[in-house]
Write a structure and sequence with these properties.
Shape: globular
Number of helices: 12
Subcellular location: Periplasm
GO cellular component, one term: periplasmic space
Strand order of the largest sheet: 4-3-11-9-10
Pathway: Glycan biosynthesis; alginate biosynthesis
Main location: periplasm
GO molecular function, one term: transferase activity
Amino acid sequence: MTDARLALKLILPVAFFGYAGYANLDLIRHGDLSIADRDLFQGGVTGEIDSVYRDKLPHRDPSVGLVGALRYALLGEGRDGVVVGQDDWLFTTEEYRFAADAPVGLEETVARMAGMRAELAAAGSELVVLPLPAKVDIERRHGSDGAVSRRSAAEYDAFLAALEGAGLQAVDPRAAYAGGEAPGRFFRTDTHWTPETAGRVARHLAATGLVAAGEVSYVRQPGAAETFQGDLVSFVTSDRLAPVIGLAPERAVPYLAVAAEEDAEGGVLDLFGGESGGALVLVGTSYSANPTWSFAEALKLALGRDVLNHAAEGQGPVRPMQAFLAALRAGEAVPEVVVWEFPVRYLADPALWDGDGDAADGAAEEERHDA
């Protein structure tokens, strides 16, 4: 490390702690922070201090944002939770951990997934798994560590092989990712794929023939353009300061799949009478649940059949499947096929199978992403 870089690393904490000293004196001077007459061993003291710092610390949010912006601008670093790549590309640290280090290993995870497949099969439903590769794998030239990208790709291959070895039908969509160019595959400052990538993956899945095509003709209806701050920016600085340091807002144009006029008039969309029997069910993470990425709509267009979306944001890939299985046990109509979207980065999530003793419960926190 050069002397200049070391100096920069020291300037930020010195400035931060200097501000902290000023802020604490300001709180005491104005009577906001006073514990002289309290028992320091009572839990209420820490609760009050936490409340004061959260609600009354002067310039708290702007200061945190400013320190983060300076750290990023001077050192090219963010807080825990983000890894800064090349050309202002951001990656979640979840992609820098691997299944070999998780409490539940790859083989056990696939075995549990096979158990879920068996339950669906017993009910009369077919399962197709859609493993999603990591952003750090696909966008290697924008990453920070080529070794991590290669290891991520190897883990994806191992996951795919394990699924097939356990008899689960799985679709490898990486060829669909290769059909686009950055920045069209992933958002630069967000963990998710773009609507364009979601569409290519849906068409790739349809081309495999693992999911039978339907007879409904859909047309793509573009929605209003959306501008949003990538979900990884919060690990660097505030939304207000992000554009100043090169982290501009992202832009996406979501879309809907609308039945062609002749099909709508013919009542084809009412084929299932509002029930899920015979339909395709989509289960997964925010890649599927967030309407901005339009994945469920892309599947309708590619397959020509209705899609009932049971994906959920912020719960990882396992808990939505557990919830769907619980709904089937409770009497929900059985779909013909279930597509399970499963990002490979969750294989390393230590909470992926939490609560699995009750198959209807679970916990797999999707960072704050989901994103």
